[in-house]
Amino acid sequence: MAFFILLAAFLPPNQKLAYSAANVAVSPPAVAAGQGQSFTVNITISSVSRLYGWEFKLNWASSFLDVVNVAEGPFLRTGGDTFFTSRINNTEGHIIADCTLLGQVSGITGEGVLACVTFYVKAVGQCPLDLYYASLLDDSPDPQSIPCQTSGGYWSSVSSQHDVSVTDISVTPTAVLPGQTVSINVTAYDSGAFPEAFNVTALVNFQAVGQGTVSVTPGCFKVLPFTWDTTGYEKGDYIISASASTVPGETNSADNNMTFSKAVTVLTPEHDVAVTDVRPSKTVVGQGFCMFINVTIKDFGTYNETFNVTTSVNNTVIHTDSVSLASGLDTLLTLLWNASGFPIGNYTLKSYAEPFDGETTTSDNTYVFGQVTVAEKGDINSKTPNTPDGKVDMWDIAAVARPFGAHAGDSRWNGNADITGPVLGLPDNIIDMKDISTVARNFGK
Fold it and tell me: Is 312 exposed, middle or buried (0-12, 13-18, 19+ CB in 10 A)?
């Protein structure tokens, strides 16, 4: 709540008042959702007067639930611009959320929604949604605490009486020539209370290649074998999945579908490599800062190969790397680009696998990603996709403040807001005060 104190000098003058206790609660107080499903609860407030800022803390059992999103509710925004932030710790089952009005505006009176919290159900069970702390501040120049009482909630899973699922897929081999066959074994399971008969479909790139009917008693598995004939399929990577049809009375169908963990590669009987992806760690990089470029290369031929891959920014080569690949395998190059010396503007990234003796198909040796922008330090917000607005202002501070505290991989992660990372070739991978400070030092440019 420290940022409330920093704002105190800007708040309108006010006399000290005695407030009646407000109510902060989880709504609805009880919710049911099954494994694989998501649900949302609101953190509501009622009987509050002159609310300028708030903070709450919520706990849950992390073995059952993950929080996937925390969003600001509309209540405080009715009074003007707000600053909202949240921190999610799914390992411990804990969130902290804060919000405040900005500037010389009056606090809000009444009732409404402070925040919306969305959970994902990982396992069958039940647990409290423990709203164990709330703090409210009024709009006084020397902010007063508004007394409040909290009410938590409770979640339990839905245990369907009719429930079937796909629990496993095995695939062999995972690299073939056109015309060869692939064996797909799908394991179906009856996790309900009644015997079930249902269809199981095997899919390649989400197109059915086989279907079978299975009858299973409660608590039992059945394995269905399928064969995929690759005749007529072009070289490439293919996604293998399976789907069990929904049985009458089934309410939890999220586990009726499964995707095999590895793509199956259809090869060509020759020398053939390709650049399959170029992916930058951010789409806006400040002058003088660095970013990573991830380049994926694959050997689609039937020979082991060694060759060079050249990566360029517009027409400037920034990396040339020697790559050795066995047939059917791929590799990821993580390349550092230092944007020092590059003028402000938009740039195209390109990686090119240089042809070698015996390679005749080269149309997929080049992969182009566009565009990445070199911008003024701290200018990261976009008015159009990937394009900053050309000035460092409050929009940029807000763009860093929203994901503040996020690490790479978090749901709130925004690579562009990690302005200072990577540093000296090492990942930073956290949005912190160094990034806020960079915007502040360049504010107004």
Answer: middle
pLDDT tens digit sequence for 191-206: 777 899 999 999 999 9
Last residue of a domain, one of 156, 188, 213: 156
Which DSSP helix (H) or strand (E) runs through 146? strand 145-146
Q: Are residues 150 and 175 in the same domain?
A: no
- 146-189 pLDDT, tens digit per residue, is 999 999 998 887 655 788 999 999 999 999 999 999 999 999 99
Q: Which amino acid is at 26?
A: V
445 close to 392: Cβ distance less than 8 angstroms: yes
Per DSSP, the three-state class of 417 is helix
Whether the Cβ atoms of residue 286 and residue 377 lie closer than 8 Å to each other:
yes
Interior angle at CA 188, CA 182 and CA 194, nearest 5:
160
Alpha-carbon distance 346 to 341, whole Å?
14
Whole-angstrom Cα distance, residue 386 to residue 424?
24
Last residue of a domain, one of 109, 138, 156: 156
- The residue with tokens 């976009």 is 382
DSSP 392-403: -SHHHHHHHHTT
**pTM of structure:** 0.61
- For residue 169, what are the domain limits? 164-266
Nearest to 167, CA basis, from 244, 66, 264: 244
